[in-house]
Each structure stands twice: as C-alpha cells, then as structure tokens.
C-alpha cells in the first residue's frame, strides 16, 4: 500500500475530481482537504504511524487554495474556524 501511495504522489499533477464537490467553486474542496490533512496528521501521530499518506491531502489543498489564505496562522492563534 505504501508503494501505491508513493507512486500516486510521484505522479501527482493537480487535484483530481472529487464527487463531493462537483461545482466549479472549489473553496469547500480546498477547506476540507486542509482539514483532512491536519486530521490525518493528528490521528496518525497519535498512533505513532508514518504520516506519509497524509501528504496526498496536503498536495491537493496546496494546489487548490490561494496562497493568500493563512489558515496556519489562524490555527497558531487559536482562531481557525474548523475542527481538527
């Protein structure tokens, strides 16, 4: 399974179609992939497992989200609106 994930990450170009977000506006897609990445990191860190599978979510949200959105700063300040 790790080889499959590594291969997918290596061949990654842009965010694939996600049936949860069929419309043109990808704001929610960006937001949920950001949440999924940090939830994945949190849960796998708690289990003491390698967090490499979480990199998929990070690549998706990095390709969809504008760089001007500073959610990491909001998380550090404790003002981020999502539940991670």
UniProtKB/TrEMBL annotation:
<dbReference type="GO" id="GO:0005739">
    <property type="term" value="C:mitochondrion"/>
</dbReference>
<feature type="disulfide bond">
    <location>
        <begin position="40"/>
        <end position="54"/>
    </location>
</feature>
<dbReference type="Pfam" id="PF02297">
    <property type="entry name" value="COX6B"/>
</dbReference>
<feature type="disulfide bond">
    <location>
        <begin position="30"/>
        <end position="65"/>
    </location>
</feature>
<dbReference type="InterPro" id="IPR036549">
    <property type="entry name" value="CX6/COA6-like_sf"/>
</dbReference>
<keyword id="KW-1015">Disulfide bond</keyword>
<dbReference type="InterPro" id="IPR048280">
    <property type="entry name" value="COX6B-like"/>
</dbReference>
<keyword id="KW-0496">Mitochondrion</keyword>
<protein>
    <recommendedName>
        <fullName>Cytochrome c oxidase subunit</fullName>
    </recommendedName>
</protein>
<dbReference type="GO" id="GO:0045277">
    <property type="term" value="C:respiratory chain complex IV"/>
</dbReference>
<comment type="similarity">
    <text>Belongs to the cytochrome c oxidase subunit 6B.</text>
</comment>
<dbReference type="InterPro" id="IPR003213">
    <property type="entry name" value="Cyt_c_oxidase_su6B"/>
</dbReference>
<comment type="function">
    <text>Component of the cytochrome c oxidase, the last enzyme in the mitochondrial electron transport chain which drives oxidative phosphorylation.</text>
</comment>
